[in-house]
Amino acid sequence: MPGAGRAAGVRRLGPQPSEEPPAQEEDQDLLLAAAYVSDAQYNRNVPFETSPRAIRLYYFYNHWTMQVAIYFFICVDLSLALFEVPALFPLPFLATSIAEVLCLTAFFGRLVHFAKVTPQMVFWKDTKNICIMVTIVIRRTFRSIRNTLPDILYVFLLFVFSVLIFSLMALKLFGDRGLQTVEGSPYFTNILEIAFELYVLVTTANSPDVMMPAYNFSWWYSLYFITYIIINTYIFMSVFLAVVYNNYRKHLKNEIRKLAYLKRHKMIEAFNILKVKVGTEFVVMEARWKQLARIVMPHISGPHLELLLRISDEGQKGHVDKMNFIRLADLLNIQVVTINIKRHPLEDWMPRVYQSSASLLVQRMVRHRIFVWVYDVIILINAIFIALDEKNPFISYAEWLFLSLYIIEILLKLYTYEPRAYFGRKQFWNWFDTLIIIAALVATVANTTIQSARKYNSQQILDIVLILRILRLLRIIVSIQRFRLIVTTLINIGPTILTFGGLVLVVYYVFAIIGMEAFHGKVQFFDPNFTTPNALVCGNPALKDSAFARDRYCKNNFNDLASSFIVLMELTVVNQWHVLAGGFALVTHQAAKLYFIGFHVVVVILIVNIFIAFILEAFFVAYSLEKSEVETAIEKKIQELGVGIQEEEMQDGKLVDNMDAKDSGFSGDDGDNKRKALKGLYFRIASKKYRTVDALLQQMFESEIAPEDEGPSLDEILNFSPGDVYPKNPNFENSA
User: Which of 55, 465, 535, 576 registers the highest number of CB atoms within 10 A of its CB?
Assistant: First the structure.
C-alpha cells in the first residue's frame, strides 16, 4: 500500500469551524472511528486526512472493487509482452498502445486518489509512490529481500573471493598441463572460463564432468575438487541459508511488532473519538458500539453482532470499557460461523420410515468410525488395482465394483446427514469427493460406450478416467490426522506463497524482457524431423559441435515471452543451466554468461532461500501456537449461551449429530429424539486453517502486551529497528 511503514490515520486536523448540526458531526466521528478500527483490523498503514471528504475518499480507496480494478490493470499491463514484438500472439501496435495508455491512466488515477486522502507532506516525502503500482503485489516480500541484502552481501563477497582463489589455484595447477576437455578444447587455461566453470560446480550442474580431465590425469587432483565442493557447495550455501533465515526472522519480528503497536494505537484513537464519561471512567455506549461494528463490517448478522456485544459488555451495563473496546478489531477478525440447525428432509417427508429401527441402524452405522475405516481400506485396495494392468478384464470389472461402492457411500451419507449441511460452504472434502466420483462415473460410462462401439478407442477419455481414479486416493488425507495437520499448515501459508509467487513472476518478467532484447532470434527451433544442417545447429552456425546443439536445446530460446519463462524455469532448477548459458554465449558474447549468473544469484540463492526461511518459520509457528485469548473468550461465551458446536463435530461428516444436549441448550435421553428437536441458530469458531502466518505471529506478540499497556509513542513505533526490545517478550523473541 502507498505509505507503508507510516502510521495509518494518525494525523488529526485541529478543530475547525463547522456549520454541521451535532448529529452530522457525530456521524463524521463515527466514520472516522470506523476507519481507524478497519485499519487496525486489516493492518493497513496508510496515513489519511480526517476531514469528512477525505474520510469518504479513503473508504472508497479501500473498497474491494478498487483493489480488484487495480490488480486487473496490473495483470493487463504485464501481459502486453505476450502481444508485442517479439510476440507469442501478435496484435496490432495500435491495440497494445491503447491498452497500455489505459493501464497507465488507471495507475495515475490511483495515485491521484491516494494523494487526495493523505497529507501532502507525507505523500511527497514517500518516494515509493512513484513506483507503487508496479510493486503493489509484492511489497511485503520485496521488503524482506531488501532487509536481507546488506547482511547476505558480506557472505556473498566472501564466497566470490573463495571462488576466485580456487580459480587461480586451478589455473596454476592445470593451465600448463596440456589437458583437454571431451570436446577437445583446452582445459582450464582461461581465468574467466575457470571462474565460470567453478561457479557452475557450486550448483553441481557440471559435476563430475568438469573434474574428469584432471582426475584422469592424476588421482590426486580429485582432492582439489573435493575440497572446493565441501567449502563452497556445502559450507557457503548452508551459510547463505542460515544468514537469510536469521535476517528474515529478525526483520519479520520487527514488522509484526510495529503492526501490533500501530493496531493498538489506532484502536485507542477510535476509542478517544467515541468515548463518553460514565461515572469515573470513559466508555463507549452500546448503541454507538453497534453502529461502529456495522460500519466496519456491514454484512455482520444480528446474532453474530449480539454475541460480540455479550463478550465486550460482559456485565450487561449498556456500555463497553476501553480494554474491551481495543479488542474489537480482533473480534471482527475471528470468523464466527452461524449455523442454522435443520432436520433432514426425509424426516419431514416420511417420518415413520426415517425413524424406523432399520433406518436408525443404518444411520448409526454410517456415523460410526468403523464406517470410515472400512472405506479407507477400500481406497487402499483400489490403489493396488489402479497399479495393475488395465487391459485385464478382471481389473476392468473391479473398477466398476469400486465405483459402485463409492456411490453407495455418498448415498448413505446423504441419507444420514442433512444434505445442505453435508454440502456446506466449508465442507471442501465432501464436495471434492462427490465431484470426483461423479466425474469418474461419467468418464467411465463414456469410455465403455465408445469401446463397445468397436469403432475407435478414445485415449483422451481413458486418460481422464485414470487420472480421476488416482485423485480418489486423496481421500486418505481426510482420514489421517497428521496429514490433515500438514495440509492445514500449507493452507495457512498459501497466501504468502502466492505473494512469493508474485515476486518470482515479476523477477521472471524482468529477466525475460532483458533476455528477449539480448537473445531474440539468435536460436531457432525446427521440427525434430528436419535434418538439414541449419536445423542441426538451431539456425545458428556458431552452435556447431556445441553441447547446446547436440542436446537439441533449440526450443529453449528467448523468441517470445512464454519460451523465455520456460528457459528461466529451467535455469531455476539449475540442472544443465551451464549448457544453456554456454549456448547463448556462443551466439552473442561470452559476457552473456553474466546474465545467467545474475539470474542464479537473484532467484536461486536469494529468493529461494528466503522462501525456504519462510516455510521453516511458517511450520514452526503452525505447530506451536494455540488459540488466542480472544478466540478463547468467544468460545467460552458461545458455550455459556448454550449455542456452541465444536469444530470436530463439523468434520468427517459428523456435522450436527454428535452435539451434547447440555451444550446445545436442549435436553433429552434419546440422542435421535434430541436431533429432531434441534432448531435455531448455533455458532462455532471457523477452522484454524484460514488463519495466516502473519496473523498467528501477531497474535503471539500481542499476547505478551499487558491489556492496560498503551505502548510506546507513535514516533517510537515508526522508528522501530530489529535491535529494539520493547517490551521484552521472551516467548515472541524465541519463536519469531
Answer: 465
